[in-house]
Amino acid sequence: MLGVGALHFGVFCDQKATNDIVARALDLGVNFIDVAPMYGSGSAEMMVKNAIKGRRDKVILATKVGLNPLFAADGTFGVEVMALNRKNIFSSMDKSLLALGTDHVDLFQVHAFDASTPLEETWSALTDLVRSGKTRWVGCSNYDHNEIARTVAVVKKNNTTDFVSLQCHYNLIERRAEQDIVPACVSNNYGIICYRALCRGILSGRYKNDQPLPEGSRAQVSNRVRRWLTRDTLSLTQALEGFARDRSMTLPELSIAWLLERPAVAMVLAGMRNIEQLEVCVSGANARLTAQDMADIDEVIASLSLRDQVNSLPEVFLEK
What we know:
The chain is α/β, with parallel strands linked by helices. Helices cover 44% and strands 16% of the residues. The chain has helices spanning 15-27, 44-51, 86-100, 119-132, 145-158, 177-188, 218-221, 223-226, 231-245, 251-260, 275-286, 291-303, 307-312; strands at residues 2-5, 32-34, 60-65, 67-71, 77-81, 105-110, 135-141, 165-169, 191-195, 265-270. The longest helix is centred in the N-terminal third of the chain and has 15 residues, at 86-100.
């Protein structure tokens, strides 16, 4: 299943572009929209509200609680984890409902693990939100396997609402999640929602070794993206692009199709900036890879001696 990631709404997409993307997504059967209070420099939830006006019943709407943006003097961006106490959780939910123009969301996700607040308080508050009807389900994001285990223990002990999903940074060439997060989700029956499915745009196929950065690309304005554009990584994307081409696919289509074949993956989020990108992502979601295709992809990675790199990335799941 494919979902619309609303990270770019309000930054790279104005209201018209947001409306167009959401309308086309619904036409194509993509009805899951994932947003957060900090997305779009704080405006994404309101833009989603405008885009789904009169169509709220057609949308599975997800938002989050738990992260605040940080901006350094040099212009770099980071995040801080807020205290997930009852007051902050209820306040965040009410602000999100107001911004989204709705009386409930379908999925309310803890954006990051908070070690400063007792888990009992956090999950008691989330349980009460479910009981109140302000959210149908609860999920989490950026938890490691130890944090999953700690939360599971509290949920079982206190008979509180369990989460149904976990968002994590996972893609074709960054597969560290397979070591412990994916097995934890499989054993607890949690659906994985993948973000950075195209590895910050690196799996778009736009970046090449020994070629200038494409005009208008994220790497032109983001040091965070540029530092990932190593020769090894781009050699791998070139090899995977050839693999995709041999199967009449593009690299983005292959990347999304690959994720949807992985264990426990329930949803792939795509942070598209225009309708063309949306349609490519939908094509990937509709594609199917065979078991042999999946094995052959691993062989492509192994042939470049990059299996260890792929299995050790990302270095951190939540870049602070």
